[in-house]
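Our consortium's second objective concerns turning raw sequence data into structural hypotheses that experimental partners can test. To show how far this objective has progressed, the report includes one record in full. It was chosen at random from the queue rather than selected for favorable results. The single chain below, 132 residues long, was entered without modification.
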Amino acid sequence: MTKVIIYTTNAPMPVGPYSQAVRQGEWVFLAGQIALDPKTGEIVGGEDVKEQTRQVMDNLAAVLKAAGTDWSQVVKTTVYLADLNDFAAMNEIYAKYMDAKTAPARACVEVSRLPKGVKVEIDCIAYCPTMA
């Protein structure tokens, strides 16, 4: 089974030695995304966790699309919050991207720090039976 690197200009470029996503067999593993605008490389949303979450989810959606899949096939997400008090606000936006009946498994943790001082980072794993 060959590992396939997934890349799209519709999501921020990696800032280190990692890929936006890696496909192995019928599974796609997406790197964590933060609230970076893919065109400017600037943080979106300032201190607003809702706006940051929206950008994160849009970035992940772009990588999922490049891999040939979408939110309906995501089986697991991990949400990293700089402040767990932002959970409800993040969750309000996150829920807009998910069908409640088929939502993926999820973990959400508070971390001491995130890249570029953002408030939220999310990664995910998705099923992808056919290649884009």
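The partners drew two points from this record. Helices lie at 49-67, 87-95. The radius of gyration is 14 Å. Both points have been shared with the crystallography group to help prioritize constructs.
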